UniProtKB/TrEMBL annotation:
<dbReference type="InterPro" id="IPR056743">
    <property type="entry name" value="TRM5-TYW2-like_MTfase"/>
</dbReference>
<comment type="subunit">
    <text>Monomer.</text>
</comment>
<comment type="function">
    <text>Specifically methylates the N1 position of guanosine-37 in various cytoplasmic and mitochondrial tRNAs. Methylation is not dependent on the nature of the nucleoside 5' of the target nucleoside. This is the first step in the biosynthesis of wybutosine (yW), a modified base adjacent to the anticodon of tRNAs and required for accurate decoding.</text>
</comment>
<dbReference type="Pfam" id="PF25133">
    <property type="entry name" value="TYW2_N_2"/>
</dbReference>
<dbReference type="InterPro" id="IPR029063">
    <property type="entry name" value="SAM-dependent_MTases_sf"/>
</dbReference>
<keyword id="KW-0539">Nucleus</keyword>
<feature type="binding site">
    <location>
        <position position="418"/>
    </location>
    <ligand>
        <name>S-adenosyl-L-methionine</name>
    </ligand>
</feature>
<dbReference type="InterPro" id="IPR056744">
    <property type="entry name" value="TRM5/TYW2-like_N"/>
</dbReference>
<keyword id="KW-0949">S-adenosyl-L-methionine</keyword>
<comment type="similarity">
    <text>Belongs to the class I-like SAM-binding methyltransferase superfamily. TRM5/TYW2 family.</text>
</comment>
<feature type="domain" description="SAM-dependent methyltransferase TRM5/TYW2-type">
    <location>
        <begin position="328"/>
        <end position="590"/>
    </location>
</feature>
<keyword id="KW-0496">Mitochondrion</keyword>
<keyword id="KW-0963">Cytoplasm</keyword>
<dbReference type="InterPro" id="IPR030382">
    <property type="entry name" value="MeTrfase_TRM5/TYW2"/>
</dbReference>
<dbReference type="Pfam" id="PF02475">
    <property type="entry name" value="TRM5-TYW2_MTfase"/>
</dbReference>
<comment type="similarity">
    <text>Belongs to the TRM5 / TYW2 family.</text>
</comment>
<feature type="binding site">
    <location>
        <position position="507"/>
    </location>
    <ligand>
        <name>S-adenosyl-L-methionine</name>
    </ligand>
</feature>
Length: 601
């Protein structure tokens, strides 16, 4: 007889699936690595580290899967890239079948001897022997000698509970029976007597996912979130003395039970080969007649495609020796990949695995096909899997941003740097963001500072910047411009209607230093004696030099035509091998601000 149980992540109780009995009738001699015999599987397993692996166990598929093949065409459906059933693995295990009320205590006691595999609970339910807690009190205690009258009284009490006539028992009716009783005698005064009226009056909302899961369970399939199944293999006879030894005489099981899955090294071992801790537990619960409260049973643990992690699946699908592309940037519901040239023939396979293993958070997978070389800083993206919508919503620092990756630039990896920059600002600052984009710095600063002037050359970015300012209710503290960076700097500092700017942000790493000459002579029309506050400038840039700080510092000095001023350097992140992104913060030198030489716009 085969009993099957379903595992779900951090979920008890487990659902039961109705698989065909022939599925686990005998071990099949196939594995993901085309291992031909069960003996070969055991030999491979002995050389692998502890824990689940696609190289261990055996596959129930009748034929070994065909892997390491590229899709035949670019138009091939994502569902036909590879067979998910080929990742199913069956493991032979041993388990202790114990009463449900003792399972948690025994789990702590035998922790070191249990399975302890990630995403698989050590405790599993046994279907068919569950008893409701309320009904359990009505059953006679089989351990004591009860007479026939006691059994009859229990049966009468149970019948009274079934037919809703339990008023004399001193217990409340079930919600359904109680509602039925009150409905028959309902009047204007009886309305207040309903318990949990709102709860029982409203129909329960059944989600579509639950309905689909139930339908799949009826059809014998495995749902999307179902990771593993345990099949308990029992002998036809109730006597399991051959497995437990002559001193243990099993009887028909009564009451709710649980399975404690034992370590994989104890599979196919008898009671004499078990460690002393397990033997002690078995002997501790032996009755006077030699019958045991516990049972040692054999079971099969089946892990499905949904159980394996993304890197494990990719390692099996990609050729040997190839680097596994496991890192990607998340922008809302979009996963942004930067695949190497060696990964491009397998880009569809990689995208499908990334999508499968990160649902429902990730709904679209894209890959950057070319470097950023336009003035708008937009990326050339190719949709590899999922829906083709590149419009998404990003939440950062408590703000919501609408972003279209096809027309604007966004980099989630700079969120930490943006937060670091915001810590420099105070409530009295006035910010000038020269290259604002959709507003990740400008809008976050608007919640903290007095006022923000934000600009970008990309009209699509300016449109989203205005939308995001209204979305976050900050439109009164930010003014948006759409013009060239030099012209914007000259306009803000030359206008008498603008507020005195105290902080300038120039986050355009490729070309920001080329706009620094716009600050030459900005205060030439003002007198030094009036004590104007010179702004502090935060400029970003890239450097491939051996000493990136010195190289970036020299480029800033050349752009400003000034040597004697202090610059605070900060390494943001390494964007490529040998290429650093840096942030230089300095106060605009007085000689540059009051210079008679003016930059040419």
């Amino acid at each position: 007889m085969v009993i099957k149980l379903i595992f779900r992540p951090n979920c008890l109780p487990f659902s039961v699936l109705s698989f065909p009995p022939r599925l686990f009738s005998r071990p099949l001699n196939f594995s993901l690595l085309s291992t031909s015999t069960t003996t070969a599987v055991a030999a491979v397993s002995s050389t692998l580290p502890y824990g689940p692996s696609l190289r261990k166990g055996y596959s129930p598929s009748p034929f070994p899967p065909t892997l390491h093949q590229c899709p035949s065409s670019e138009q091939e459906s994502d569902s036909n890239l590879f067979d998910e059933d080929s990742f199913t693995r069956v493991f032979d295990l041993a388990a202790l079948r114990v009463p449900s009320e003792l399972c948690f205590g025994l789990e702590n006691r035998l922790r070191g001897h249990l399975l302890n595999w990630p995403r698989v609970r050590n405790i599993a339910r046994v279907p068919g022997d569950e008893i409701d807690a309320e009904l359990k009190k009505l059953f006679p205690d089989c351990s004591s000698s009860n007479n026939l009258n006691t059994d009859n009284d229990a049966l009468v009490t149970l019948n009274r509970r079934i037919y809703g006539k339990a008023d004399g028992d001193g217990e409340l009716l079930s919600p359904v029976l109680y509602r039925d009783k009150l409905a028959r005698t309902f009047n204007s005064r009886g309305f207040v007597n309903f318990r949990n009226l709102a709860k029982i009056s409203r129909p329960k909302k059944v989600k579509k996912k639950e309905e689909e899961r139930k339908e799949k369970g009826k059809k014998g399939g495995v749902g999307r979130n179902e990771m593993a199944v345990v099949a308990v293999v029992e002998e036809e006879e109730s006597d399991v003395s051959g497995l437990l030894g002559d001193e243990f005489k099993g009887k028909s099981w009564r009451g709710s039970t649980r399975l404690l899955l034992l370590d994989e090294t104890y599979a196919n071992k008898g009671i004499n080969e078990m460690p002393e801790a397990i033997k002690a537990v078995l002997k501790e619960y032996v009755g006077d007649k030699g019958d045991s409260t516990f049972e040692l049973v054999k079971c099969k643990l089946t892990l499905f495609y949904s159980y394996w992690q993304m890197n494990e699946v990719l390692e099996a699908l990609l050729p040997n020796g190839m680097i596994i592309p496991s890192a990607f940037e998340t922008v809302g519901h979009i996963a942004h990949l930067n695949l190497r040239d060696e990964h491009l023939p397998y880009k569809k396979i990689v995208a499908k695995v990334v999508l499968d293993k990160n649902k429902p958070k990730i709904q679209t997978v894209v890959n950057k096909t070319d470097i950023i070389h336009n003035d708008y800083r937009t990326m050339q993206l190719e949709v590899l899997a999922g829906n083709h919508s590149l419009v998404t919503t990003v939440v950062e620092n408590g703000l919501r941003f609408h972003v279209d990756l096809a027309t604007v630039y966004w980099n989630s990896r700079l969120s930490t740097e943006r937060q670091r920059l915001l810590n420099y600002f105070t409530r009295d600052d006035v910010i000038c963001d020269v290259f604002a984009g959709v507003g990740p710095i400008a809008l976050a600063a608007a919640r903290k500072v007095k006022h923000v002037y934000a600009n970008d050359l990309n009209p699509y970015a300016v449109d989203y910047l205005e939308r995001n300012s209204v979305l976050n209710k900050l439109e009164k503290k930010i003014e948006v411009f759409n013009m060239d960076g030099r012209r914007f700097i000259d306009t803000i500092f030359a206008s008498h209607k603008t507020r005195p700017v105290t902080q300038v942000v120039m986050n355009l790493p490729n070309d920001a230093t080329e706009f620094l000459d716009a600050f030459r002579g900005l205060f030439r029309k003002h007198h030094k004696d009036r004590g104007y506050t010179l702004p502090r400038i935060h400029v970003y840039g890239f450097s491939k030099a051996q000493d990136p700080e010195f190289d970036f510092h020299e480029r800033i000095r050349i752009a400003l035509s000034e040597v004697a001023f202090d610059v605070e350097m900060h390494r943001v992140r390494i964007v490529a091998p040998g290429k650093w992104m840096l942030c230089a913060s300095f106060t605009l030198p007085e000689r540059v601000a009051y210079s008679k030489t003016v930059s040419i716009l």
